[in-house]
Amino acid sequence: MTVIHDFRTLWAFPNFRKLLAVRLLSQFADGMFQVGLATYVVFSPEQQTTPADIAAAMAVLLLPYSLLGPFAGVMLDRWRRRQVLLYGNLLRAALVVLTVTLVLASVPNYLFYLAALSVTAVNRFILAGLSAALPRVVDAQRLVVANSLSPTAGTVAATVGGACAFGAQALIDTPGRWADALALGLAAAVYLLAASAALLMQRDLLGPATTERVSNLHAALTATATGLRHGLTHLWSRRPAALALLGVGVMRFCYGALLVLVLMLARYAWGDTDSDGVAWLGLAVGFSGAGFFVAAVSTPWMVARCGRFGWFALCAALAAVLVPALGLTFRPVPILIAAFLLGLVSQGAKIVTDTVVQSSVEDDYRGRVFSLYDMLFNMAFVGAAGLAALMLPPDGRSAALVITVALLYLSTAVGVWRLHRRLDPLHSSTVPTVHGTEPGAGGDTQGGGQEAGGEAAPSDGTGPAVCAETGTAAGTDSERHTGADTDTAPGGIAGTPPEPGPSTGSAGSAASDRHPEPERPTP
């Protein structure tokens, strides 16, 4: 298979293996941390969880990605990236230990959220650093493949980490807060392992070189903000891309509102014990992940037959019809079917949007546009959680919310269908190619499939490198780190394809041209 062959090729680079080890350990720990956070906020017996609590937890997980993401690259151009991976993981381990102490001490929730927010803020720099370091450990010809497979492997690691945390909690017969503390404590231990793995690399291996480091921080931050404004202006001039982003933002909003509904149903309506609710939530995560996988496999085929906007419109229309048909029952089995459907249509629309943006936006602006994409994606999710907090009763049964979401899906389907009729000669462009999938429960995450859409860089490495984690193509130096590395937690509170799709700026081939040639692969 092509994926296996590509991975074997990358495995021949020793420093790639070391960087991948740091990624896998870091994201494995992320999955454990997010499960500990989710079970404490939603299922802890000591907590009378409300939709507002869930909205606050989603804001903790996603807002750092949205607000810090575009500026993380500026800092990564000042600090040695290997040191960022080392000290960032050490700092996260310490912050998680603090979070465990707060959980066991039954402190006010705002202190817990502040500690958790600090962990996710540091995570933003870790994930951006991992993407920015790739051109230092593989050659230009294999950078596109590395950008596709490395984030996918990280997403799988986060999913496995979350599953291990669920399993560890199920194996011990202790009060709820001790089980939550166990998941968080295990995450801290794995963060220490990730920091140890970073020590296997030389201090200056991952760059930036001394001559490349940003010297004037204020000027760099100002330039980043100005670049985002120029990116927004350019995006508006590319109307198909702008409207596609608007459509996928609305679908992301719907996805987030329904996720909060499912969390409340699992907590209060499905089962007599908290463990029953956790089990149902785990099944919802699995069904949604299956939908993401089916979208990754079926979207190229559907785009070839319906056109890009035609498939997008069909996804929104399916959701508009089937979400109320299944969701208004508020029963587990129909909701699980709806979770599969939402995974399918949300990821199908996202793949189309990535492809439209990549093919419509000029290369010089692509990194900045994908940073805006990431901010829209995560902020729509948090906004949806806020709406759900206002509309949902304590048990999660709200017909008004389900109907509102269905109407939003319907309006999106109508608007995108008009685009299809006007613009879908575009569907003759290259069909998106998908290397992997990113499962999610209902949404970052930050946070997730991984696709390299339509007009991605050619495999010979001469074009712009596209990061499958974000769909971000390599841009200029000032923009190559501006995205957000989306590995928002599968199975966590956000349960999102840490994604938003695009979630971190990738280090592009343009950057690699300035770097020393990476070591050649060993036999």
From TrEMBL:
Keywords per UniProt: Cell membrane, Membrane, Transmembrane, Transmembrane helix
Name of protein: MFS transporter
InterPro entries according to UniProt: MFS (IPR011701), MFS_trans_sf (IPR036259)
Residue ranges, compositional bias (Gly residues): 439-452
Recorded topology in the membrane: Multi-pass membrane protein
Cellular localization per UniProt: Cell membrane
Keyword Methyltransferase included in the entry's annotation: no
Domain of life (superkingdom): Bacteria
Lineage of producing organism: Bacteria, Bacillati, Actinomycetota, Actinomycetes, Kitasatosporales
Biased composition (Basic and acidic residues): 512-523
Transmembrane segments: 20-42, 54-72, 84-104, 110-132, 153-172, 178-200, 242-266, 278-297, 309-327, 333-352, 372-392, 398-419
Compositional bias annotation for Low complexity: 502-511
A Pfam match: MFS_1
Region of interest called Disordered, as start-end residue ranges on this chain: 427-523
